[in-house]
Design the sequence.
């Protein structure tokens, strides 16, 4: 028993020594095996940026061939610059080949399909454009993007004389479109009506549609069918309901100026300016009406009034110069307007150049 106790005590006393010896042995670093360096330089693969930079130096047809060699794995972002360059160079065969490859690509976004179709031109004369629009129309997209795609798809279908399908796409898109996003669709509805001879049907649809855009287009179509007075009646009704809509304002003022209703035009312009005090440009419509009526005195009186009220509005003063020149070459008045223009925008070099050209045309004399 005593022997067992002494043995255990000796083992306990020797334990730190053994541990320290063991950790000391572990702390010795292993010998490093030095690798022999090869004299040959390591071959690094070129990066994608270097490859793209090298490919950009190739001729256009070779770049297109490289892009087409990828097949259905083609990336639209890589192909679009070459496609736009092909269209600009009028190499339509190369552009159409790239567009076909984008249309057949495995992964392509609706916006990329839309941009590809637009890059080929507005006439929608190529069948591949219709395929691009069709694939984009069938894909998922935001509401705004889906409406723009629907507009392009309708254009392509009308160009291909697929009128029934175009009408279906129009009606479906129109039902889901907010009031402020219907203008493009309504314009294409009018185009569809003129192509198919369904103008009366389109007119009835426009009159049954609410919103300022529908009112403007309806008035335009009514003017073609029934005359300016009928169109003006439609615009008057819409004006009372949507006086702040800019497109409606322009259509209403333009119709009043063309028909010579100067008193009503002046009242309407005053209301427009009250709604947007920082924009005096609607007064130019009144000025044009005076010029159309050959009322030189009234026109010049309005020019002087606007110049005194808006001496810092260079865009307005530029328009006043144009109207003063239509009234006749009154040199002192034009010099006054040009000098007011330079004071309103002294850093705008194009104004100074226009004034210098006018002075040269007048012989450079100042009276």
Sequence:
């Amino acid at each position: 028993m005593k022997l067992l106790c002494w043995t255990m005590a000796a083992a306990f006393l020797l334990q730190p020594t053994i541990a320290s010896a063991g950790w000391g042995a572990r702390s010795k670093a292993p010998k490093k095996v030095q690798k022999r360096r090869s004299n040959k330089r390591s071959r690094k693969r070129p990066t994608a940026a270097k490859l793209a930079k090298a490919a950009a130096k190739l001729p256009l047809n070779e770049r297109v061939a490289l892009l087409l060699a990828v097949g259905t794995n083609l990336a639209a972002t890589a192909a679009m610059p070459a496609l736009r360059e092909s269209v600009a160079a009028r190499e339509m065969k190369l552009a159409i080949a790239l567009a076909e490859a984008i249309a057949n690509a495995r992964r392509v976004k609706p916006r990329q399909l839309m941009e590809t179709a637009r890059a080929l031109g507005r006439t929608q004369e190529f069948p591949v454009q219709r395929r691009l629009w069709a694939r984009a129309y069938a894909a998922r997209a935001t509401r705004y993007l889906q409406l723009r795609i629907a507009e392009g798809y309708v254009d392509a279908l009308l160009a291909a004389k697929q009128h029934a399908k175009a009408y279906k796409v129009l009606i479906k898109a129109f039902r889901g479109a907010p009031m402020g996003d219907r203008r493009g669709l309504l314009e294409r509805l009018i185009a569809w009506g003129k192509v198919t001879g369904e103008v009366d049907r389109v007119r009835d649809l426009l009159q049954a549609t609410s919103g300022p855009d529908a009112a403007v287009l309806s008035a335009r179509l009514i003017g073609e069918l029934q005359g300016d007075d009928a169109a003006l009646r439609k615009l008057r009704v819409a004006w009372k309901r949507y006086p702040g809509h800019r497109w409606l304002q322009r259509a209403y003022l333009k119709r009043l100026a063309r028909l010579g209703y100067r008193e009503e035009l002046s009242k309407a312009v005053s209301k427009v300016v009250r709604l947007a005090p920082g924009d005096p440009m609607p007064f130019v419509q009144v000025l044009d009406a005076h010029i159309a009526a050959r009322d030189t005195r009234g026109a010049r009186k309005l020019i002087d009034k606007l110049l005194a009220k808006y001496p810092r509005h260079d865009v307005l003063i530029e328009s006043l110069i144009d109207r003063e020149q239509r009234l006749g070459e009154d040199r002192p008045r034009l010099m006054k307007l040009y000098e007011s223009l330079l004071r309103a925008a002294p850093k705008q070099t194009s104004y100074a150049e226009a004034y210098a050209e006018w002075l040269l045309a007048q012989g450079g004399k100042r009276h």
Remarks:
- Residues 1-27 have pLDDT under 50 and may be disordered.
